[in-house]
Design a protein that fits this description.
33% of the residues lie in helices and 18% in strands. It is of the alpha/beta class. The strands form 2 sheets. The protein has an 8-stranded parallel sheet, sandwiched between helices. It starts with 20 loop residues before the first strand and ends in a 5-residue tail after the last helix.
Length: 289
């Protein structure tokens, strides 16, 4: 049984026992390779969410009509990635074991590994759909195996070949793209093949973990991130991608890599808030209060 956070994401104040979706924050960015600040992403998203509405005109749905609980941010060890991942895994375990869908707010992308470890235990045939500018398939980064630059490589060690599906990728070492060619299903630059993939996964009722690195969005719209990459997608394209993914059997998800203080205009945080709202509503299906 988890307790409600003092400040919740807008409209996410359902009782834990009744909730279908449970939010939690993973404020960790100790392996960030360029510009730090993603540790503040989850708290900024929560606070600034009150600048948007609970109602989505995109989906004609309202957060107030669904059962969503916000358990707040974890207290993570900034100097110990292994311990931080264990804490994330433990929180995801609780949520999974209680029959609910965890939605984690990062944080740098490494935090995904903790949630995926928990997901694989419950769903051994798990697939991962991954939106990102970066391949994140390095075996190590400057000698570190636990790095946001290596997170999908570590996830591959849990899932095996053919179960990681990557979209919008436009950056990485040549060796990462070579690895992807043999072991993951990589779709560069956009969402080509996403509809076919989700239709196939849905038809087989395969459990899917969805991980969204917000730097898949072009930095002209989303500059507040640690490793911006030109040539990204628009917000509307991202929204369409989320709607497409949500048709699959999503059992867990995360949104990460907002570094809010790198965009003093607040536009990046506003985009992140709206993305989280749309993702919650897309995942809520028809489970109303």
């Amino acid at each position: 049984m988890l307790n409600q956070n003092i400040e919740t994401f807008i409209g996410c104040d359902c009782d834990y026992r009744e909730a279908d979706i449970v939010l939690f924050g993973a404020p960790f960015d100790s392996t960030t390779s360029f510009r730090p600040g993603a540790r503040f992403g989850s708290s900024y998203i929560r606070h600034e969410s009150f600048g948007i509405e609970t109602y989505s005109p995109y989906q004609d749905k309202d957060l107030l009509d669904f059962k969503v609980f916000d358990s707040g941010d974890l207290e993570l060890s900034f100097g110990d990635a292994g311990k931080a991942l264990n804490d994330i895994e433990n929180r995801a375990d609780i949520i999974f074991n209680d029959g609910k869908l965890p939605l984690m707010l990062g944080g740098e992308h490494l935090v995904t590994l903790g949630a995926v470890r928990a997901a694989v235990k419950k769903y051994p045939d798990l697939h991962i759909i991954h939106f990102d500018a970066h391949a994140d398939l390095r075996d190590d980064y400057l000698g570190a195996k636990l790095s946001h630059a290596c997170v999908m490589r570590r996830c591959h060690e849990l899932t095996g070949d053919g179960r990681i599906h990557q979209f919008c990728i436009r950056s990485g070492e040549k060796s990462e793209f070579e690895f992807a060619g043999e072991h993951t299903n990589m779709h560069k630059f956009g969402f080509e093949g996403l509809l076919e993939l989700t239709s196939k996964l849905k038809s087989k009722n395969i459990p899917v973990y969805f991980t969204l690195d917000l730097d898949c969005v072009d930095p002209s719209s989303f500059p507040g991130t640690g490793t911006p990459e030109a040539g990204g997608i628009t917000f509307n394209e991202l929204l369409h991608g989320i709607m497409t993914v949500s048709s699959a059997n999503i059992i867990g998800a995360d949104v990460n890599e907002l570094a809010p203080m790198l965009d003093q205009s607040g536009a990046s945080t506003a985009l992140a808030c709206k993305t989280v709202r749309e993702l919650i509503l897309a995942l809520s299906k028809n489970k109303r209060r």
